[in-house]
Each structure stands twice: as C-alpha cells, then as structure tokens.
Design a protein that fits this description.
Length: 69
C-alpha cells in the first residue's frame, strides 16, 4: 500500500528529493511511513500530525504500528 499526503503547492515547487525530506509530506508504504515518522520525531521533535478525513482509514495501519499493535 502506498500513501501520499501533502499540499499541492509543495509538490509542484520542490524537487523530488526535497519532497521526500519535507516534514509536511508523507509518501511510502506503511513501513516507510513508520520509519519516516520516527526519524522526524527524533530530528525535529514532531510528534503530532493532522491526517485529513479522506486518509484516516488508509493511515490507520501506521497508527497501529506506532502504537505497538
């Protein structure tokens, strides 16, 4: 499963490398998203995210994995 979340402005003005490094965009499999979120917490101290309603069900496996379920 792949997920993509982020602002349209960010996707059009940044290079692919910049997008992948951005704390505002999540791209990848559940395993990749879990790893990226853990790295972002360590690097930037970000521990809270807003997931918009259309993506809540798709993001549920990431939350479950981070919660240790």
């Amino acid at each position: 499963m792949k997920m993509f979340m982020g602002c349209a402005e960010c996707r059009t003005q940044l290079s692919p490398e910049e997008i992948l490094q951005s704390p505002f965009v999540l791209i990848g499999t559940v395993d990749q998203l879990v790893e990226d979120l853990q790295v972002r917490r360590e690097r930037w101290g970000i521990s809270y995210y807003v997931i918009f309603e259309p993506y809540v069900d798709a993001f549920a496996p990431v939350v479950a994995r981070l919660a240790g379920r």
